[in-house]
Design brief:
By secondary structure, the chain is an alpha+beta fold. The protein has 5 helices and 12 strands. Strands 2, 5, 9, 11 and 12 form a 5-stranded antiparallel beta sheet that branches. Strand 6, helix 1 and strand 7 form a beta-alpha-beta unit. About 20% of the residues are buried.
């Protein structure tokens, strides 16, 4: 029998799997982007084009297909004491952000002054979000419920979504809002742009952030979702190999099915 990984295969070590007490076989997913020697995404690959090891043990690939290509975005807006004077710029800026997001992706809109309040549930109708943004009013004298808003939106809008992408969790964050945002960005592989003052350029800045999100979406549309069988033992390193010469694999964190 030939070795599971040929010498010509390229490997990429991924993050360790979470430890699970059970030992039965479970389905696991990993997301991978495959590039040729020119850096162009390669389409049309199947199970025979990949090889997977977990902790040095070959795993059986059960399915390979295009990764899910729909985003759900939670737009949390602080309309409290410090931002109320700039509501005009905020309305224009977040409207520009929404315009930059490709159609059919879902956006939820919530405010976090005083407490988390969901204004528009997740919807692919971006006009509903823009309409709600256009009538946004300030809540003078209130603080920002940033951390509560992040946790609440995760619990109600993301945690139970099927086929969601895995991210590493930073656990309970500590520090001020900037430190918390920095930690959250680092652990999720996100983007942080600290804006020192609200100016006339805010709409352009928020549009730029929307473009970054749109670029991430377009990248996701070129990825594969690879399912394989795994035992649910201690954390083990995962390696993905390409069986064809000249291919390079970029992969993200794996997850167990719930």
């Amino acid at each position: 029998m030939r070795p599971v990984f040929r010498a010509a295969a390229l490997f990429l070590a991924l993050l360790l799997a979470p430890q699970l007490a059970a030992t039965q076989s479970r389905v696991r997913d990993v997301y991978a982007r495959v590039l040729d020697s020119a850096g162009t995404p390669v389409a049309g690959l199947g199970p025979a084009d990949f090889e997977i090891q977990e902790g040095g043990v070959a795993r059986t690939i059960t399915r390979v297909g295009p990764a899910s290509s729909t985003m759900r975005i939670a737009l949390l807006v602080d309309n409290g004491e410090f931002t109320s004077p700039a509501l005009m710029q905020l309305r224009a800026g977040f409207s520009a952000f929404v315009d930059a997001i490709p159609d059919h992706n879902e956006i939820a809109f919530a405010t976090i002054a005083r407490s988390y309040r969901l204004r528009v549930p997740p919807t692919a109708d971006h006009s509903k979000v823009k309409n709600s943004i256009s009538v946004l009013i300030g809540d003078s004298g209130s603080g920002s419920a940033l951390l509560d808003g992040v946790f609440e939106s995760h619990d109600t809008l993301f945690r139970t979504v099927d086929n969601r992408r895995p991210v590493r969790s930073p656990g309970q964050g500590k520090g001020n809002e900037l430190e918390l945002c920095t930690s959250l960005t680092r652990w999720t592989g996100g983007h942080l742009d600290a804006i020192g003052a609200i100016t006339e350029s805010l709409p352009d800045k928020l549009k730029e952030i929307g473009v970054l999100v749109a670029d991430a979406y377009r990248r996701m549309t070129t990825e594969y979702e690879i399912e394989f069988l795994s035992d649910a033992g201690p954390p083990r390193e995962i390696q993905i190999g390409a069986t064809r010469r000249g291919l390079r694999i970029e992969a993200s964190q794996a997850r167990y099915r719930e």
